[in-house]
Amino acid sequence: MSQADANDSDPEIERINLRISRSFREVIDETWRERGFNSRSEFIRYALRESVNHPEGASFWKDLAISEAQFDESEGRPSEEIKAAYGSDDE
């Protein structure tokens, strides 16, 4: 049984749906793997907790999401540029 299956029976755990661009999902997938998380969901839960507990860092994720959406429309900055602007050199 996977961790996700185990959580389905926990009344405290709720499933949500989230719509994001494909390119942003690719950035998220690359990031959770690079940082050693076991799954996309685990990484997203961590990122959400960090945003709630440390709202001053949330602007990075907001700027990254906006940039990725604009990038899809050929108007934005690459995620590497956003990461560099915030000093996030995870590569």
UniProtKB/TrEMBL annotation:
Pfam name, any one: RHH_1
Sequence ranges assigned to domain Ribbon-helix-helix protein CopG in this UniProt record: 14-50
InterPro entries for this protein: Arc_rbn_hlx_hlx, CopG, Ribbon_hlx_hlx
BP GO annotations: regulation of DNA-templated transcription
Coiled-coil residue spans: none
Transmembrane segments: none
Compositionally biased region (Basic and acidic residues): 74-83
Chain segments carrying region Disordered: 71-91
Top-level taxon: Archaea
Protein name: Ribbon-helix-helix protein, CopG family
Species, as recorded: Natrarchaeobius chitinivorans
